[in-house]
Amino acid sequence: MDHDKKSIIVTLIICRIAAAAWFICIPLVPFIARWYDVYSNKESIFTQFVSSVYAAMIPAGIIVYLLNRLLSNIRKGEVFEHENVKCLRIISYCCFAIAAVSAVMTVWRLLAVIVVLAFAFMGLLLRVLKNVFEQAVLLREENDLTV
Questions:
Q1: Distance separating alpha carbons of residues 60 and 26, to the nearest angstrom
Q2: Residue among 28, 100, 102, 18 at smallest CA distance from 61
Q3: Which residues of the chain have pLDDT under 50?
Q4: Which of 95, 100, 123, 124 is nearest to 113 (CA)?
Q5: Which residues neighbour 102 within 8 Å (Cβ) at sequence distance 6 or greater?
Q6: Is pTM beyond 0.85 here?
Q7: Residue boundaries of the structural domains of the chain
Q8: CA distance 68 to 31
Q9: CB-side exposure of 26: number of CA atoms within 13 Å?
Q10: pLDDT for 43-64, tens place per residue?
Q11: What distance in Å separates the CA atoms of residue 78 and residue 81, rounded to the nearest whole number?
């Protein structure tokens, strides 16, 4: 049990670091895009790059926020709850949104297909996990009624 709590705390710390990185990256996106343009040796896609990254940062920020909420609930012992199912559902939609934004980016850089596939697969995995959690919530509620 002690190991589980430590694991949750470590994961919460990592999520909070990710949240800080998200905030730090917001003003850095144009600089990263300029750097990419200089070193890519291809036509400039500065505007497309910045637009797609900022569009993807919206669902990414939602993901980080909901992961923190989900981990906080689990830390409190609230595991199989409707709120956690809702968090997993929204996180999966956000993964699909990032995949869609990245799919648009493949018009200019075919390598973005890797990001599309990665986020689409994560979204799919989270949908499966959400369905498992949803069934567990229903079983828990049914068990609570039988006692």
A1: 12
A2: 18
A3: none
A4: 100
A5: 52, 56, 112, 113, 115, 116, 119
A6: yes
A7: 2-22+41-146
A8: 28
A9: 10
A10: 899 999 999 999 999 999 999 9
A11: 6
